[in-house]
Design a protein that fits this description.
It contains 17 helices and 24 strands. The chain is α/β, with parallel strands linked by helices. The strands form seven sheets. Strands 1, 2, 3, 6, 13, 14 and 15 form a seven-stranded mixed β-sheet that branches. The termini are far apart.
Length: 501
């Protein structure tokens, strides 16, 4: 059997899966992403631990192959922004700094003292946020200058995996779009921003369209993974964008809701003449994994993590038990609201210092109410984002295509469908991010004529959630209340941030 292999480098899990050319899952291996917390919002991944985890998962996958099975290609979907420096011999000089590490805030503040946010947006399509690769690079340059003396290459997370697999330096346009160093319109590294940052262009890997084959598995990688040296490796893309590909969000008017640790909303469009912050209302723009497509992206950085955080700290129980408990609370959680800003606020008002909060707490509120309010707060946040996206693109989204761990939470999907007043369609393949990566490899080696054929050959719908007409009016009023509360919550956060300074 001919198989396509995808790797997903996620914030919570690392996964490896094989699919047949019809898009059916053949095997799946996964492991927790080992995050080494440094405290106070700082964390790192150890590069060797990350590669050991990936190679171990690949060994498990290859050991399950039948004699006639053949892996045609490999590609990677990954978190964006995270990365590390390598020296001239390809050895890591630093740990991998995750996208959410707060050290980027210091570099971001200094960067915007000399360059206005709208200037950056006009080149990169990225709005004010500390998570981008550039700010990690600048922090290291300032605080560990000895590193820069030896640094030969910056690689984002998937680029590091490509290097481990092939020995080649490469990235794709969608990952490059998350660095704050990529000219989105031109599709190349920005000399203007590199000069401003004081970095040489050689520090960055070549950038290719997603699905471009960059080489085959090296003998060294084959020995530790069980892969064949004949297996080709193609660049994949940012995890949410790979997911949008597999979820058939490849035409204007469709929107993807990819909910995991973070939640990303992706709408696609074709023409990009100018990048103006007002026109795009605070949302990010980037290159899609499909050539000649762009995406508009907003989201909730602390989506699934809000639920996981509450369960870990206050209500240790299984996910299924959590959902059933949350269902016992009434709509509106007895007057309590949750603002899900554990990692800053969402567009169109991107405020990295905004804090999460529960509002309206009384002594009669129960764990069920807290859990219900978390679900509802996340849905109110998403509904507001979608409304602004529709206005910016001058269209109405017909429905939502949902993927990621959040799509398996029935309560979350039911509330979200009703709050947004849109049907939510869930693809038959839950591992859409992995499938998107695998399909990009398939396009690269010619299994499919193009990206559109790959989507047509593999996309299937599993189920659809419809808005509840009996709850629509009630949730409409709650949504209006939430969006009156939201600016006040941001104002409180700003006061607290000033006090911290």
């Amino acid at each position: 059997m001919d198989l396509l292999l995808g790797i997903d480098m996620g914030t919570t899990h690392i996964k490896v899966a094989t699919f047949n050319v019809q898009g059916h899952l053949h095997s799946l291996e996964m492991s927790r992403t080992k995050t080494n917390s440094l405290g106070v919002g700082q964390a790192v991944y150890d590069p060797q631990e990350i590669w050991d985890c990936v190679s171990a998962l690949l060994r498990k996958a290859t050991r399950k192959l039948d004699p006639l099975d053949r892996i045609l290609s490999i590609s990677v979907a990954s978190m964006g922004e995270a990365g590390l420096f390598l020296d001239a011999s390809g050895q890591p000089l630093t740990p991998i700094i995750p996208w959410f590490d707060v050290r980027g805030k210091e570099a971001m503040d200094e960067w915007y003292e000399s360059m206005r946010p709208n200037e950056c947006f006009a080149i990169t399509g990225l709005n004010y946020n500390y998570i981008y690769s550039l700010f990690k690079m600048l922090w290291l340059k300032k605080h560990q200058p000895e590193i820069m003396e030896r640094a030969a290459k910056w690689l984002c997370m998937p680029d590091f995996i490509y290097y481990c697999l092939t020995g080649e330096y490469a990235t794709d346009h969608s990952i490059a779009s998350r660095t704050m160093l990529f000219d989105v319109r031109k599709g190349e590294w920005s000399e203007t921003l590199l000069d401003r940052a004081g970095f040489d262009k050689t520090l960055l890997p070549p950038s290719y369209a997603s699905g471009t084959v960059i080489g085959s598995v090296s003998r060294k990688a084959a020995d530790v993974t069980g892969l064949s040296t004949h297996t080709m490796v193609a660049v994949g893309g940012h995890d949410h964008i790979c997911g949008s590909f597999a979820a058939n969000v490849i035409e204007p008017g469709r929107v993807l809701d990819s909910s995991g640790t973070a939640e990303s909303l992706i709408a696609v469009f074709r023409e990009l003449s100018e990048l103006d912050t007002e026109a795009f209302s605070g949302f990010n723009v980037g290159r899609h994994v499909i050539p000649d497509l762009y995406y508009m992206q907003g989201g909730v950085d602390s989506s699934g993590i809000s639920i996981e955080w509450f369960l870990e700290q206050f209500a240790k129980m299984s996910y299924d038990e959590m959902i059933e408990l949350a269902r016992t609370s009434e709509v509106g959680a007895h007057g309590m609201f949750f603002v899900p800003h554990l990692r800053g606020s969402s567009p169109p008002v991107g405020e990295p210092y905004s804090k999460a909060c529960f509002l309206g707490m009384r002594d009669y509120h129960t764990p069920a109410d807290f859990l219900r309010s978390i679900h509802e707060g996340l849905c109110f946040e998403v509904a507001g984002i979608l409304k602004v996206m529709e206005k910016a693109l001058s269209l109405e989204f017909r429905n939502i295509h949902a993927i990621g761990g959040g799509s398996k939470n029935d309560l979350w999907m039911e509330i979200k469908s009703t709050v947004t007043n849109k049907p939510i369609e869930v693809p038959a393949v839950h591992e859409a991010t992995l499938l998107g990566a695998a399909l990009l490899g398939g396009v690269g080696v010619g299994v499919y004529r193009d990206h559109q054929e790959a989507s047509r050959a593999t996309y299937r719908s599993s189920l659809t959630y419809e808005p509840d007409p009996n709850l629509r009016e009630r949730y409409g009023k709650l949504y209006e209340t939430y969006h009156k509360i939201l600016p006040l919550a941001r104002q409180i956060s700003q006061i607290m941030h000033q006090a911290e300074d």
